């Protein structure tokens, strides 16, 4: 007779209530539901047996997962697990809307991130978050980047933690760059800025030691990357204070590190928000303000030109000359 049973029926017969409890509990924890009558028929037991199973499952959840509980839905006539949630629906919505707004991840990766965050929200509130995200996700268009960004971030995070040396090639946006050039260096830290993730790498062979460590965009590395066997300890004088570096970085960590002084006619908080570490040192009679700070010159130029006639560079003189030269070239494009 046993030969006529299915594999599942054999397991139910052999393990009895142990198999039943484990299967039902895993079913509930995965977000599914069950009906007592259907469970009785499936396992071939009486109602009292399922009720005892429920009692024991509730005991297990109370002991090991106190944020979850088994409840009965009288409308659907099923049992389900509800959880209090690690984060509130508002917190999940806040984080997901922010991630969507960066347009950083491919649609598939974004869906994986969404699923992971929604798992932290209570079952009861999960559907409302999905509803509020539906329109935004339906019209989501990511920036052009690699589809394996999460995998890349994970690899770089491990290399940073283990102080690993890597050998790589890189697709730079600079016209004079050599795409076949091989770099050897040690990743130091990761950061995010304006739709892209960046990694600081201390290069072991760098012609311009003043610019070392350098910043690379994670999606522009050629993969796979070769990991060297030995770890490397970066010289103390080359270790980077990430917080200080980010205060000086606006889009690009290129050019010289300059102490700037601007006269600004637009809304002052706009400058203070975009240029961390900047400060207002004087307010003029015409409503403009004098702002000082520290930034890398290429990032400074991007910011300056984005402000149109609402900004004038006062210091340093080298930055004033560079702005004049680039504005002159821009005007020539329209004169020709």
TrEMBL record:
A Pfam family reported for this protein in Swiss-Prot or TrEMBL? WYL
Describe the location of the WCX domain by residue ranges: 279-330
In this chain the WYL domain maps to: 156-221
Which InterPro entries would you find in this protein's record? Answer: CBASS_pafABC_assoc_protein (IPR051534), WCX_dom (IPR057727), WYL_dom (IPR026881)
> Sorted alphabetically, which PANTHER family does this protein's record hold?
PROTEIN PAFC, PTHR34580
Q: What is this protein's name?
A: WYL domain-containing protein
Organism for this UniProt entry:
Candidatus Companilactobacillus pullicola
């Amino acid at each position: 007779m046993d030969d006529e049973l299915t594999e599942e029926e054999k397991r139910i017969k052999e393990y009895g209530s142990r198999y039943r409890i484990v299967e039902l509990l895993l079913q509930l924890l995965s977000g599914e539901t069950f009906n007592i009558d259907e469970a009785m028929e499936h396992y071939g037991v009486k109602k009292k047996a399922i009720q005892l199973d429920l009692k024991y499952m509730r005991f297990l959840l109370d002991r090991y997962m106190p944020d979850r509980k088994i409840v009965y839905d009288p409308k659907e006539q099923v049992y389900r697990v509800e959880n209090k949630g690690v984060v509130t629906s508002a917190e999940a919505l806040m984080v997901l809307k922010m991630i969507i707004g960066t347009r950083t991840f491919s649609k598939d990766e974004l869906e994986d991130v969404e699923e992971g965050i929604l798992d932290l929200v209570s079952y009861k509130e999960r559907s409302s978050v999905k509803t509020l995200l539906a329109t935004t996700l339906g019209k989501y268009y990511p920036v052009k980047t690699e589809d394996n960004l999460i995998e890349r971030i994970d690899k770089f995070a491990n290399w940073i933690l283990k102080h690993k040396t890597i050998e790589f090639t890189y697709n730079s946006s600079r016209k004079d760059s050599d795409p076949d050039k091989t770099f050897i260096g040690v990743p130091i830290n990761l950061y995010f800025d304006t739709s892209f993730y960046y990694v600081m790498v201390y290069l072991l062979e760098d012609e311009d030691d003043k610019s070392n460590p350098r910043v690379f965009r994670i999606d522009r590395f050629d993969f796979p990357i070769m990991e060297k066997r030995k770890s490397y300890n970066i010289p103390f004088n080359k270790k980077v204070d990430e917080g200080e570096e980010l205060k000086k970085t606006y889009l690009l960590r290129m050019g010289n590190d300059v102490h700037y002084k601007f006269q600004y006619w637009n809304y002052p908080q706009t400058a203070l928000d975009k240029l961390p570490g900047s400060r207002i040192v004087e307010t003029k009679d015409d409503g403009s303000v004098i702002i000082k700070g520290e930034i890398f010159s290429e990032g400074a130029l991007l910011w300056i030109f984005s402000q149109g006639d609402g900004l004038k560079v006062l210091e340093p003189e080298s930055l004033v000359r560079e702005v004049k030269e680039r504005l002159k070239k821009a005007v020539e494009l329209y004169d020709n």
